[in-house]
Design a protein that fits this description.
The chain has about 100 residues and is mainly alpha-helical. The chain has one domain. Helix content is about 90%, strand content about 0%. Helix 1 runs parallel beside helix 4 and helix 3 packs antiparallel against helix 4. The relative contact order is 0.16.
């Protein structure tokens, strides 16, 4: 009985370890992509041309970093993806204006 409980605990531990690693990696990739997109938007003059999208992308990225600091990788990835989408929308609007 003790061996079965020990084996079950070990399996649960390993599954949680491998699963958390996947969330971490995906969240970090999403945050890096969001940072790059935001810097591209800033380089195109997004602060002045599309201030709503710029501020939204910046705040969402800030939230993603906050969630990551608390090891909430799932929410960090969600915020980073939304930040990248806001930056992309801002870049698209800048391209339309030119």
């Amino acid at each position: 009985m003790v061996k079965r409980i020990g084996a079950l605990v070990m399996v649960i531990f390993l599954l949680s370890f491998f699963t958390s690693g996947c969330f971490y990696d995906k969240a970090m990739k999403a945050m890096n992509a969001a940072e790059k997109s935001l810097s591209d938007l800033k380089a195109q003059g997004g602060e002045k041309l599309v201030p709503y999208e710029y501020c939204l992308a910046e705040k969402l990225l800030e939230n993603a970093k906050g969630e990551a600091s608390e090891s909430d990788w799932s929410h960090a990835r969600d915020f980073a993806d939304r930040s990248r989408a806001a930056s992309g929308a801002g870049l698209a609007q800048i391209q339309k204006k030119r």
